[in-house]
Amino acid sequence: MSNPVTLKNVNGGAALTEKTLSGPSGRKPRRVISGRNIMLYGTLFVAAAYYLLPLYVMIVTSLKGMPEIRLGNIFSPPLEITFEPWVKAWATACTGLNCDGLSRGFWNSVRITVPSTILSIAIASVNGYALANWRFKGADLFFSILVIGAFIPYQVMIYPIVIVLREIGIYGTLTGLILVHSIFGMPILTLLFRNYFASLPVELFKAARIDGAGFWQIFLRIMLPMSLPIFVVAMILQVTGIWNDFLFGVVFTRPEYYPMTVQLNNIVNSVQGVKEYNVNMAATILTGLVPLIVYFVSGRLFVRGIAAGAVKG
Amino acid sequence: MNSSVSIKDLSLDFGAVTVLKNLNLEINDGEFLVLLGSSGCGKSTLLNCIAGLLDITEGQIFIKNKNVTWEEPKDRGIGMVFQSYALYPQMTVEKNLSFGLRVAKVPQDEINKRIARAAEILQIQPLLKRKPAELSGGQRQRVAIGRALVRDVDVFLFDEPLSNLDAKLRSELRVEIKRLHQSLKNTMIYVTHDQIEALTLADRIAIMKNGVIMQLDDPTTIYNEPRNLFVAGFIGSPSMNFLKGELVNREGKIVFATNDVLFSLDGYKAGEALEVGRKVVLGVRPEHIKVNEATALGAEIHDATVDIEEPMGADNLLWLKHAGHTMSVRVNGARRFGPGSAVKLGFDMSVASLFDAQTELRI
Question: Where do transmembrane segments lie in this chain (chain A) (predicted)?
């Protein structure tokens, strides 16, 4: 710091600062505790508590024994933590005729959800791509019919579909249910994919055509690699939708193929014996775990994909 | 003349809307043709028709004397460069360049050879391993041109390739495209709304409006002898001065009169006989009006007052009032007048234009 040139510069700088710093400057100071902040954070806190409290009650209750539950303090943490209800819900609770818990339903649900999700996304993505990029004759009509399909209540279609499945010979089988789930996912998924592909620059598609790529080459080599977010969105929608389905599971399958949701209902609504609240809570959380995990793992991509699809359509 | 692209009676309708009407166009081998027009005039649509990306309603398209009206884009021998570059984002530059060749199953060593050549011409060798997102706008457009280059096409189609770039880069790439055309000698069709690009690049310019070609000529002719009022007003910045008036007889000579001010038409080469009483529009470009230049003023001198002065560096733009009209005049940037100053104007009729007020066609 003995360098005189440097010293002079520092002095010059200080003089300059002094001159400019009279009166307010920089960021305006704000009070942390103000009426506005109390209202804002207070509302947020109440809303968060409103949504989280039921989950808290469920977790706490599922970890208590029945004697402790009968005391009636549903908000108090368990005095003695027990995992007995969880084990019972998974492995030994009685659902109708069988007494092997939710495990059977879990594997049924996996065997329904995985193929249905893959099949419906595979078909819907090609549908959406064809509708967005290859303006074939009657495309608008086809699309309108598909969208109308999304608004027809499921209940209206149950009887016809039962008859169709019976005639084909797959009524009551997993294949039949997978087919039904794939068909019912089609309108909304096609809409989703069509809007996403329509939001991609059309010039990319033109460039690929000039490069000589055909329908499938453009789809597989150009479009697919750019569409990860929308595939994640579609996957989440389908996995949660099909996993949480109850109606189709009851209507289109036999008891040995009942999905987890139907079995959960059979456990919770069984009329014989004592109501085992802790087992019911554990069984419910177990059933909801899959969609929950899917959201946690891919939530960020989900938001990005929804936003991407929403920009243009 | 050997024609490279030939369009015959082309029409295109979108439902009830006619976008292109009975369009005829012959493009010579090795020619640089610019399609110029404001947005919505059908110039990009025409290019997409030539590329085969749009199904035409009527007419024929020939490329290299082969009828390609029903051919797929890849079989037409064309390469296209888009405004938004349209590079495949997930592929490296090298894969972008080779995509078309890989689709066509060209042998790998041939692909490598062509990429090396294109990369050398466009000076993008250091970028080959990068993804498009890591490139600047100018580099991306170079790669996009390279994609057309490696496919060894007969005709290059450019769809406003420079519109997404900033002004400096645009003028640099403009020069590069011109250099590319001079060395490759391919036929190039270039769509733009920028008249500077059109005038600097083109061998011939086709000015379009509402799906119709208004004039097809070399840039000099377009600039100096616009065929109608639209072309005259579209080309040139600031726009040509238009004075509405009529032809009158003055001591045996036919002169132009507007708001009782007379302009001699000496030196104007009319394409048809001038008749007294005809309603006409006189068009004079800002640089064709002389200010206070005794030698260049000619026989007739007009007095006017400077209203506003716009210094633009090399030029100085004067807005002045004369004969009830506001006119712009371009003078050398070193000459300053100041608002309100009186000036003497001389009109150079040998480079002026005269249009019929009714038909808007050049006389």
Answer: 38-59, 112-132, 141-162, 168-197, 218-243, 281-303
